[in-house]
Protein backbone atom coordinates (compact mmCIF):
# COMPACT_ATOMS: atom_id res chain seq x y z
CA UNK A 1 0.00 0.00 0.00
CA UNK A 2 1.50 3.34 -1.07
CA UNK A 3 -1.44 5.63 -0.31
CA UNK A 4 -4.20 5.65 2.29
CA UNK A 5 -7.54 7.38 1.70
CA UNK A 6 -9.32 8.97 4.66
CA UNK A 7 -12.26 11.05 3.47
CA UNK A 8 -10.89 14.13 1.73
CA UNK A 9 -7.38 13.42 2.99
CA UNK A 10 -4.92 11.25 1.08
CA UNK A 11 -1.84 10.03 2.91
CA UNK A 12 1.27 9.08 0.94
CA UNK A 13 3.55 6.39 2.32
CA UNK A 14 7.03 7.89 2.75
CA UNK A 15 8.54 4.71 4.19
CA UNK A 16 7.51 1.97 6.58
CA UNK A 17 5.42 3.45 9.42
CA UNK A 18 5.62 7.01 8.02
CA UNK A 19 2.65 8.55 6.20
CA UNK A 20 2.50 12.09 4.84
CA UNK A 21 -0.26 14.55 4.05
CA UNK A 22 1.42 16.55 1.26
CA UNK A 23 1.66 20.32 1.57
CA UNK A 24 -1.01 22.10 -0.44
CA UNK A 25 -3.13 25.23 -0.30
CA UNK A 26 -2.40 27.31 2.80
CA UNK A 27 -0.50 24.52 4.56
CA UNK A 28 2.92 25.84 5.57
CA UNK A 29 4.50 22.37 5.82
CA UNK A 30 3.45 18.75 5.20
CA UNK A 31 2.00 16.64 8.02
CA UNK A 32 3.34 13.24 9.01
CA UNK A 33 1.72 10.32 10.82
CA UNK A 34 3.91 7.69 12.45
CA UNK A 35 1.83 4.52 12.43
CA UNK A 36 1.54 0.98 11.16
CA UNK A 37 -1.36 0.27 8.83
CA UNK A 38 -3.25 -1.28 11.76
CA UNK A 39 -2.82 1.80 13.94
CA UNK A 40 -3.63 4.08 11.01
CA UNK A 41 -6.97 2.32 10.57
CA UNK A 42 -7.78 3.36 14.16
CA UNK A 43 -6.38 6.88 13.90
CA UNK A 44 -8.62 7.77 10.95
CA UNK A 45 -11.80 6.94 12.91
CA UNK A 46 -11.99 10.47 14.41
CA UNK A 47 -10.81 13.98 13.46
CA UNK A 48 -7.12 13.36 14.18
CA UNK A 49 -5.94 13.81 10.58
CA UNK A 50 -8.07 16.91 10.05
CA UNK A 51 -6.66 18.46 13.22
CA UNK A 52 -3.12 17.53 12.20
CA UNK A 53 -3.59 19.15 8.79
CA UNK A 54 -5.02 22.25 10.47
CA UNK A 55 -1.91 22.48 12.64
CA UNK A 56 0.28 22.93 9.56
CA UNK A 57 -1.24 26.42 9.19
CA UNK A 58 0.39 27.70 12.39
CA UNK A 59 2.85 30.54 11.62
CA UNK A 60 6.49 29.52 11.90
CA UNK A 61 5.92 25.75 11.96
CA UNK A 62 9.01 23.92 10.70
CA UNK A 63 9.64 20.66 8.79
CA UNK A 64 6.23 19.06 9.40
CA UNK A 65 3.43 18.61 11.91
CA UNK A 66 3.63 15.16 13.49
CA UNK A 67 1.16 12.63 14.87
CA UNK A 68 2.57 9.85 17.04
CA UNK A 69 1.35 6.22 16.81
CA UNK A 70 -0.92 6.71 19.84
CA UNK A 71 -2.61 9.74 18.26
CA UNK A 72 -6.30 10.55 18.60
CA UNK A 73 -8.60 13.55 18.38
CA UNK A 74 -7.99 16.34 20.85
CA UNK A 75 -8.95 19.97 21.33
CA UNK A 76 -7.80 21.79 18.19
CA UNK A 77 -4.48 19.92 18.05
CA UNK A 78 -4.47 16.11 18.13
CA UNK A 79 -3.35 14.22 21.21
CA UNK A 80 -0.08 12.61 20.17
CA UNK A 81 0.83 15.76 18.25
CA UNK A 82 4.24 17.41 17.95
CA UNK A 83 5.05 20.74 16.29
CA UNK A 84 8.37 22.59 16.21
CA UNK A 85 7.53 26.29 15.76
CA UNK A 86 10.13 29.02 15.31
CA UNK A 87 10.62 30.87 18.60
CA UNK A 88 11.67 34.08 16.85
CA UNK A 89 9.11 34.55 14.08
CA UNK A 90 6.55 31.83 14.78
CA UNK A 91 3.98 31.52 17.56
CA UNK A 92 2.97 29.62 20.66
CA UNK A 93 -0.41 27.86 20.87
CA UNK A 94 -2.08 26.82 24.15
CA UNK A 95 -4.32 24.44 22.20
CA UNK A 96 -1.23 22.63 20.91
CA UNK A 97 -0.11 22.07 24.51
CA UNK A 98 -3.40 21.18 26.16
CA UNK A 99 -5.50 22.09 29.15
CA UNK A 100 -3.64 19.82 31.58
CA UNK A 101 -0.27 21.56 31.39
CA UNK A 102 2.56 19.14 32.21
CA UNK A 103 0.35 16.15 32.50
CA UNK A 104 3.09 13.58 32.79
CA UNK A 105 4.33 10.39 34.38
CA UNK A 106 7.03 9.40 36.82
CA UNK A 107 8.33 6.00 37.83
CA UNK A 108 9.58 5.19 41.32
CA UNK A 109 11.84 2.19 41.75
CA UNK A 110 11.87 -0.11 44.78
CA UNK A 111 14.10 -2.92 46.04
CA UNK A 112 11.02 -5.10 46.51
CA UNK A 113 10.35 -8.13 44.35
CA UNK A 114 6.92 -9.32 43.30
CA UNK A 115 7.23 -12.16 45.83
CA UNK A 116 7.61 -9.58 48.63
CA UNK A 117 4.26 -8.05 47.67
CA UNK A 118 2.21 -11.19 46.99
CA UNK A 119 -0.69 -11.57 49.42
CA UNK A 120 -0.58 -7.88 50.41
CA UNK A 121 -2.13 -6.42 47.26
CA UNK A 122 -5.48 -5.55 48.86
CA UNK A 123 -3.82 -4.00 51.91
CA UNK A 124 -1.57 -1.91 49.69
CA UNK A 125 -4.24 -0.70 47.25
CA UNK A 126 -6.55 0.25 50.14
CA UNK A 127 -3.77 2.15 51.90
CA UNK A 128 -2.77 4.02 48.75
CA UNK A 129 -6.38 4.89 47.94
CA UNK A 130 -6.83 6.25 51.46
CA UNK A 131 -3.58 8.23 51.44
CA UNK A 132 -3.51 9.76 47.93
CA UNK A 133 -6.39 12.16 47.17
CA UNK A 134 -8.17 11.49 43.90
CA UNK A 135 -11.32 12.41 42.00
CA UNK A 136 -12.87 15.68 40.87
CA UNK A 137 -12.65 18.91 42.86
CA UNK A 138 -10.38 19.99 45.68
CA UNK A 139 -8.42 18.21 48.33
CA UNK A 140 -4.73 17.38 48.18
CA UNK A 141 -1.83 16.10 50.23
CA UNK A 142 -1.11 19.73 51.07
CA UNK A 143 -3.63 22.55 51.17
CA UNK A 144 -1.25 25.40 50.55
CA UNK A 145 -1.54 29.05 51.51
CA UNK A 146 -0.69 31.86 49.10
CA UNK A 147 3.03 31.76 49.90
CA UNK A 148 3.34 28.01 49.40
CA UNK A 149 1.50 28.15 46.09
CA UNK A 150 3.67 30.98 44.79
CA UNK A 151 6.81 29.09 45.78
CA UNK A 152 5.57 25.95 44.04
CA UNK A 153 4.79 27.90 40.86
CA UNK A 154 8.18 29.59 40.83
CA UNK A 155 10.53 26.89 42.10
CA UNK A 156 8.90 23.52 41.41
CA UNK A 157 10.56 20.53 43.05
CA UNK A 158 13.26 22.77 44.51
CA UNK A 159 10.56 24.04 46.88
CA UNK A 160 9.62 20.42 47.72
CA UNK A 161 13.25 19.73 48.65
CA UNK A 162 13.38 22.76 50.93
CA UNK A 163 10.03 21.85 52.53
CA UNK A 164 11.03 18.23 53.21
CA UNK A 165 8.89 16.52 50.55
CA UNK A 166 11.82 15.55 48.27
CA UNK A 167 15.45 14.49 48.36
CA UNK A 168 18.24 15.75 46.14
CA UNK A 169 18.11 12.70 43.86
CA UNK A 170 14.48 13.49 43.00
CA UNK A 171 15.61 16.68 41.29
CA UNK A 172 18.50 14.93 39.57
CA UNK A 173 16.11 12.39 38.01
CA UNK A 174 13.33 14.74 36.91
CA UNK A 175 13.02 16.37 33.51
CA UNK A 176 14.60 19.85 33.75
CA UNK A 177 15.53 18.97 37.35
CA UNK A 178 11.93 19.65 38.28
CA UNK A 179 11.92 23.40 37.66
CA UNK A 180 11.33 25.68 34.67
CA UNK A 181 13.40 28.82 35.20
CA UNK A 182 11.19 30.83 32.82
CA UNK A 183 8.22 30.46 35.18
CA UNK A 184 6.31 33.66 35.94
CA UNK A 185 3.80 33.12 38.77
CA UNK A 186 2.43 36.64 38.27
CA UNK A 187 1.26 35.62 34.78
CA UNK A 188 -0.90 32.82 36.21
CA UNK A 189 -4.53 34.04 36.42
CA UNK A 190 -5.91 34.41 39.95
CA UNK A 191 -8.81 32.05 39.21
CA UNK A 192 -6.28 29.39 38.19
CA UNK A 193 -4.40 29.88 41.46
CA UNK A 194 -7.65 29.66 43.40
CA UNK A 195 -8.45 26.32 41.77
CA UNK A 196 -4.98 24.88 42.29
CA UNK A 197 -4.26 25.99 45.84
CA UNK A 198 -6.15 23.13 47.50
CA UNK A 199 -5.24 20.48 44.89
CA UNK A 200 -1.50 20.17 45.57
CA UNK A 201 -0.76 16.46 45.76
CA UNK A 202 -3.83 14.92 44.12
CA UNK A 203 -4.40 12.61 41.17
CA UNK A 204 -7.60 14.16 39.87
CA UNK A 205 -9.92 12.15 37.65
CA UNK A 206 -10.10 10.74 34.12
CA UNK A 207 -7.13 8.71 32.98
CA UNK A 208 -4.90 9.78 35.87
CA UNK A 209 -3.73 7.01 38.16
CA UNK A 210 -1.20 5.59 40.57
CA UNK A 211 -0.18 2.05 39.67
CA UNK A 212 2.05 -0.48 41.43
CA UNK A 213 3.75 -2.65 38.80
CA UNK A 214 6.34 -5.38 38.36
CA UNK A 215 9.04 -5.63 35.72
CA UNK A 216 7.81 -8.47 33.51
CA UNK A 217 10.34 -8.40 30.64
CA UNK A 218 13.80 -6.96 30.12
CA UNK A 219 14.70 -6.18 26.49
CA UNK A 220 17.94 -4.26 26.96
CA UNK A 221 19.85 -5.57 30.01
CA UNK A 222 22.66 -3.02 29.78
CA UNK A 223 20.33 0.00 29.74
CA UNK A 224 18.06 -1.60 32.34
CA UNK A 225 21.06 -1.88 34.64
CA UNK A 226 21.91 1.79 34.02
CA UNK A 227 18.31 2.67 34.93
CA UNK A 228 18.39 0.41 38.03
CA UNK A 229 15.71 -1.98 36.72
CA UNK A 230 15.63 -5.77 36.80
CA UNK A 231 13.18 -8.62 36.27
CA UNK A 232 10.38 -9.04 38.85
CA UNK A 233 11.20 -5.73 40.53
CA UNK A 234 8.29 -3.71 41.96
CA UNK A 235 7.94 -0.14 40.66
CA UNK A 236 5.32 2.58 41.03
CA UNK A 237 3.95 4.73 38.19
CA UNK A 238 2.24 8.08 38.85
CA UNK A 239 0.27 9.84 36.10
CA UNK A 240 -1.29 13.27 36.70
CA UNK A 241 -0.78 16.95 35.87
CA UNK A 242 -1.59 20.50 36.89
CA UNK A 243 -5.21 19.86 37.85
CA UNK A 244 -7.68 22.77 37.81
CA UNK A 245 -4.87 25.33 37.76
CA UNK A 246 -3.64 24.22 34.33
CA UNK A 247 -7.15 23.93 32.93
CA UNK A 248 -8.16 27.42 34.05
CA UNK A 249 -4.89 28.88 32.79
CA UNK A 250 -5.37 27.42 29.32
CA UNK A 251 -9.01 28.54 29.17
CA UNK A 252 -8.24 32.15 30.06
CA UNK A 253 -5.23 32.52 27.76
CA UNK A 254 -7.12 31.04 24.82
CA UNK A 255 -9.85 33.67 25.27
CA UNK A 256 -7.29 36.47 25.61
CA UNK A 257 -5.43 35.33 22.50
CA UNK A 258 -8.65 35.09 20.48
CA UNK A 259 -9.40 38.73 21.35
CA UNK A 260 -5.92 40.26 21.21
CA UNK A 261 -4.66 38.42 18.12
CA UNK A 262 -7.94 37.95 16.27
CA UNK A 263 -6.28 38.49 12.89
CA UNK A 264 -3.96 35.54 13.36
CA UNK A 265 -6.70 33.37 14.87
CA UNK A 266 -9.18 34.18 12.09
CA UNK A 267 -6.60 33.05 9.51
CA UNK A 268 -6.38 29.59 11.10
CA UNK A 269 -8.77 26.81 10.00
CA UNK A 270 -9.75 26.15 13.64
CA UNK A 271 -9.87 28.82 16.35
CA UNK A 272 -9.06 26.12 18.92
CA UNK A 273 -5.49 26.44 17.61
CA UNK A 274 -5.47 30.09 18.79
CA UNK A 275 -1.85 31.24 18.94
CA UNK A 276 0.07 34.32 20.07
CA UNK A 277 2.88 35.60 17.83
CA UNK A 278 6.38 34.89 19.11
CA UNK A 279 7.81 37.95 20.85
CA UNK A 280 4.41 39.44 21.62
CA UNK A 281 3.56 40.41 25.18
CA UNK A 282 0.84 37.77 25.32
CA UNK A 283 3.17 35.03 24.04
CA UNK A 284 5.71 35.90 26.73
CA UNK A 285 3.03 36.02 29.43
CA UNK A 286 1.56 32.68 28.38
CA UNK A 287 4.96 31.00 28.21
CA UNK A 288 5.81 32.23 31.71
CA UNK A 289 2.43 31.10 33.03
CA UNK A 290 2.72 27.72 31.29
CA UNK A 291 6.18 27.18 32.81
CA UNK A 292 4.76 28.03 36.24
CA UNK A 293 1.95 25.50 35.74
CA UNK A 294 4.61 22.99 34.69
CA UNK A 295 6.35 23.56 38.03
CA UNK A 296 3.02 23.14 39.83
CA UNK A 297 2.48 19.76 38.13
CA UNK A 298 5.95 18.57 39.15
CA UNK A 299 5.19 19.60 42.73
CA UNK A 300 1.89 17.72 42.47
CA UNK A 301 3.61 14.49 41.42
CA UNK A 302 6.35 14.98 44.01
CA UNK A 303 3.84 15.34 46.86
CA UNK A 304 2.11 12.15 45.70
CA UNK A 305 5.54 10.48 45.64
CA UNK A 306 6.13 11.60 49.22
CA UNK A 307 2.78 10.16 50.34
CA UNK A 308 3.40 6.92 48.38
CA UNK A 309 6.76 6.45 50.08
CA UNK A 310 5.05 6.90 53.45
CA UNK A 311 2.43 4.25 52.60
CA UNK A 312 5.06 1.72 51.50
CA UNK A 313 7.04 2.35 54.68
CA UNK A 314 3.91 1.70 56.78
CA UNK A 315 2.81 -1.41 54.88
CA UNK A 316 6.25 -3.05 54.67
CA UNK A 317 7.55 -1.85 58.03
CA UNK A 318 10.77 -0.26 56.79
CA UNK A 319 11.81 3.32 56.00
CA UNK A 320 11.25 4.14 52.33
CA UNK A 321 14.97 4.72 51.91
CA UNK A 322 15.61 1.12 52.98
CA UNK A 323 13.02 0.01 50.42
CA UNK A 324 15.06 1.70 47.66
CA UNK A 325 12.23 4.03 46.60
CA UNK A 326 14.24 6.29 44.32
CA UNK A 327 12.87 8.18 41.36
CA UNK A 328 13.80 6.66 38.00
CA UNK A 329 12.56 9.63 35.96
CA UNK A 330 9.70 12.08 35.51
CA UNK A 331 8.63 13.15 32.00
CA UNK A 332 6.14 15.77 30.83
CA UNK A 333 3.82 15.07 27.93
CA UNK A 334 1.71 18.27 27.60
CA UNK A 335 4.18 21.11 27.23
CA UNK A 336 6.04 23.54 24.97
CA UNK A 337 9.75 24.09 25.44
CA UNK A 338 12.32 26.31 23.84
CA UNK A 339 14.79 23.85 22.33
CA UNK A 340 17.45 24.08 19.65
CA UNK A 341 16.98 21.73 16.69
CA UNK A 342 18.47 21.35 13.25
CA UNK A 343 16.16 22.79 10.60
CA UNK A 344 17.44 22.54 7.03
CA UNK A 345 21.04 22.35 8.23
CA UNK A 346 20.75 25.32 10.60
CA UNK A 347 20.33 25.29 14.37
CA UNK A 348 17.08 27.08 15.25
CA UNK A 349 15.44 27.78 18.58
CA UNK A 350 11.93 26.37 18.44
CA UNK A 351 8.89 26.21 20.66
CA UNK A 352 8.56 22.42 20.55
CA UNK A 353 4.90 21.74 21.31
CA UNK A 354 4.27 18.23 22.64
CA UNK A 355 0.64 17.40 23.33
CA UNK A 356 0.33 13.80 24.40
CA UNK A 357 3.92 13.21 23.32
CA UNK A 358 7.09 12.58 25.35
CA UNK A 359 10.54 14.06 24.99
CA UNK A 360 12.87 11.22 23.98
CA UNK A 361 16.39 12.61 23.73
CA UNK A 362 19.18 10.17 22.87
CA UNK A 363 22.54 9.76 24.58
CA UNK A 364 24.85 12.80 24.76
CA UNK A 365 22.12 15.45 24.49
CA UNK A 366 22.96 17.92 27.29
CA UNK A 367 19.41 18.04 28.65
CA UNK A 368 19.63 14.35 29.62
CA UNK A 369 20.60 13.93 33.31
CA UNK A 370 24.21 13.00 34.05
CA UNK A 371 23.14 9.56 35.30
CA UNK A 372 21.66 8.65 31.91
CA UNK A 373 23.63 10.76 29.45
CA UNK A 374 25.68 7.82 28.23
CA UNK A 375 22.63 5.67 27.45
CA UNK A 376 19.82 8.14 26.70
CA UNK A 377 16.82 9.62 28.46
CA UNK A 378 14.30 7.26 30.10
CA UNK A 379 10.86 7.42 28.46
CA UNK A 380 7.84 6.04 30.32
CA UNK A 381 4.93 4.84 28.14
CA UNK A 382 1.83 3.88 30.16
CA UNK A 383 -0.57 1.33 28.74
CA UNK A 384 -3.96 0.26 30.05
CA UNK A 385 -4.76 -1.47 33.35
CA UNK A 386 -4.76 -4.78 31.52
CA UNK A 387 -1.87 -4.44 29.10
CA UNK A 388 1.05 -3.08 31.08
CA UNK A 389 3.45 -0.24 30.32
CA UNK A 390 6.96 0.30 28.97
CA UNK A 391 10.19 2.06 29.79
CA UNK A 392 12.07 3.10 26.66
CA UNK A 393 15.22 5.09 26.11
CA UNK A 394 15.43 8.03 23.75
CA UNK A 395 16.12 6.73 20.26
CA UNK A 396 19.12 7.66 18.14
CA UNK A 397 16.88 8.94 15.30
CA UNK A 398 14.52 11.00 17.44
CA UNK A 399 16.18 14.37 16.89
CA UNK A 400 16.07 13.99 13.11
CA UNK A 401 12.67 12.33 12.87
CA UNK A 402 10.48 13.84 15.59
CA UNK A 403 12.13 16.83 17.28
CA UNK A 404 13.34 14.40 19.95
CA UNK A 405 9.90 12.98 20.75
CA UNK A 406 7.95 9.75 20.92
CA UNK A 407 4.52 8.54 22.02
CA UNK A 408 3.09 9.13 25.50
CA UNK A 409 0.89 6.06 25.99
CA UNK A 410 -1.46 3.64 24.33
CA UNK A 411 -3.90 6.29 23.08
CA UNK A 412 -7.67 6.07 23.36
CA UNK A 413 -9.79 4.03 20.95
CA UNK A 414 -13.18 5.24 22.17
CA UNK A 415 -14.73 8.17 23.98
CA UNK A 416 -15.55 8.08 27.68
CA UNK A 417 -19.26 8.16 26.88
CA UNK A 418 -19.01 5.16 24.58
CA UNK A 419 -16.82 3.34 27.12
CA UNK A 420 -19.45 3.74 29.84
CA UNK A 421 -22.06 2.37 27.46
CA UNK A 422 -19.96 -0.67 26.56
CA UNK A 423 -18.40 -1.56 29.92
CA UNK A 424 -19.54 -1.89 33.51
CA UNK A 425 -17.06 -0.83 36.14
CA UNK A 426 -17.79 -3.74 38.47
CA UNK A 427 -17.35 -6.27 35.67
CA UNK A 428 -14.03 -4.71 34.63
CA UNK A 429 -12.84 -4.66 38.24
CA UNK A 430 -13.76 -8.32 38.77
CA UNK A 431 -12.16 -9.42 35.50
CA UNK A 432 -8.92 -7.64 36.38
CA UNK A 433 -8.87 -9.09 39.89
CA UNK A 434 -9.15 -12.53 38.29
CA UNK A 435 -5.89 -11.65 36.55
CA UNK A 436 -4.40 -10.53 39.90
CA UNK A 437 -4.71 -6.80 39.14
CA UNK A 438 -6.37 -4.94 42.02
CA UNK A 439 -8.17 -1.70 41.09
CA UNK A 440 -9.83 0.88 43.30
CA UNK A 441 -11.54 4.10 42.15
CA UNK A 442 -14.01 6.73 43.31
CA UNK A 443 -16.73 5.23 41.10
CA UNK A 444 -17.51 2.31 38.82
CA UNK A 445 -17.97 4.77 35.96
CA UNK A 446 -14.31 5.77 36.22
CA UNK A 447 -13.22 2.14 35.92
CA UNK A 448 -15.52 1.66 32.91
CA UNK A 449 -14.06 4.74 31.20
CA UNK A 450 -10.56 3.31 31.64
CA UNK A 451 -11.28 -0.34 30.78
CA UNK A 452 -8.45 -2.08 28.89
CA UNK A 453 -10.63 -2.28 25.77
CA UNK A 454 -10.80 1.51 25.58
CA UNK A 455 -7.15 1.81 24.52
CA UNK A 456 -4.99 1.03 21.51
CA UNK A 457 -2.46 -1.78 21.58
CA UNK A 458 0.49 -0.31 23.51
CA UNK A 459 2.75 -3.11 22.21
CA UNK A 460 2.11 -1.93 18.65
CA UNK A 461 2.68 1.72 19.61
CA UNK A 462 6.06 0.79 21.10
CA UNK A 463 6.93 -1.44 18.13
CA UNK A 464 6.46 1.50 15.75
CA UNK A 465 8.53 3.79 17.99
CA UNK A 466 11.32 1.23 17.99
CA UNK A 467 11.13 0.69 14.23
CA UNK A 468 11.49 4.43 13.64
CA UNK A 469 14.41 4.67 16.07
CA UNK A 470 12.70 7.29 18.25
CA UNK A 471 12.30 5.11 21.36
CA UNK A 472 14.05 1.83 22.19
CA UNK A 473 12.34 -0.66 24.57
CA UNK A 474 14.20 -1.30 27.82
CA UNK A 475 11.62 -3.11 29.99
CA UNK A 476 7.92 -3.92 30.01
CA UNK A 477 6.02 -3.72 33.29
CA UNK A 478 2.68 -5.27 34.30
CA UNK A 479 0.11 -3.84 36.74
CA UNK A 480 -0.45 -5.20 40.25
CA UNK A 481 -2.48 -2.45 41.98
CA UNK A 482 -4.13 0.61 40.48
CA UNK A 483 -5.97 3.57 42.01
CA UNK A 484 -7.97 6.09 39.97
CA UNK A 485 -9.98 9.23 40.64
TrEMBL record:
Catalysed reactions, semicolon-separated: a 3'-end 3'-phospho-ribonucleotide-RNA + a 5'-end dephospho-ribonucleoside-RNA + GTP = a ribonucleotidyl-ribonucleotide-RNA + GMP + diphosphate; a 3'-end 2',3'-cyclophospho-ribonucleotide-RNA + a 5'-end dephospho-ribonucleoside-RNA + GTP + H2O = a ribonucleotidyl-ribonucleotide-RNA + GMP + diphosphate + H(+)
Protein name in UniProt: tRNA-splicing ligase RtcB
SUPFAM superfamilies (alphabetical): Hypothetical protein PH1602
Location of the active site: 408 (gmp-histidine intermediate)
GO MF terms held by the record: GTP binding; metal ion binding; RNA ligase (ATP) activity; RNA ligase (GTP) activity
Entry-linked Pfam families: RtcB
Coiled-coil intervals, chain numbering: none
Subunit structure: Monomer.
Residues involved in Mn(2+) 1 binding: 100, 208
Cofactor detail note: Binds 2 manganese ions per subunit.
Lineage: Archaea, Methanobacteriati, Methanobacteriota, Stenosarchaea group, Halobacteria
Entry EC no(s): 6.5.1.-
Disordered as annotated region, ranges: 177-204
Keyword field: GTP-binding, Ligase, Manganese, Metal-binding, Nucleotide-binding
Biological process according to GO: tRNA splicing, via endonucleolytic cleavage and ligation
Cofactor: Mn(2+)
Residues the record lists as binding GMP: 207-211, 333-334, 382-385, 389, 408-411, 484
Enzyme class: ligase
Domain of life, source organism: Archaea
Family: Belongs to the RtcB family.
Stated role: Essential for tRNA splicing and maturation. Acts by directly joining spliced tRNA halves to mature-sized tRNAs. Joins RNA with 2',3'-cyclic-phosphate or 3'-phosphate ends to RNA with 5'-hydroxy ends.
Amino acid sequence: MTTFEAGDITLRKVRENVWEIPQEGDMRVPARVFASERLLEEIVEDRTLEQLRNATHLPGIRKYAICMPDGHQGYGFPVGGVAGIDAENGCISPGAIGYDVNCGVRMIKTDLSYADLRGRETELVDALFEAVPSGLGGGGVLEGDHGILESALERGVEWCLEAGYAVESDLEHCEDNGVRRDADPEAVPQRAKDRGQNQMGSLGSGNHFLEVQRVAEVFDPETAEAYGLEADQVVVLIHCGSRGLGHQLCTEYLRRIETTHSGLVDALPDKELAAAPAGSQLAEEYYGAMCAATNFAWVNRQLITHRTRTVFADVFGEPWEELGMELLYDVAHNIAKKEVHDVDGEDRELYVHRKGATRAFPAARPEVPDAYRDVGQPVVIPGSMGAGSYVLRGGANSLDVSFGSTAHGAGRLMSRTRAKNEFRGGDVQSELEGREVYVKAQSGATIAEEAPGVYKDVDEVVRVSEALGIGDPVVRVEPICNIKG
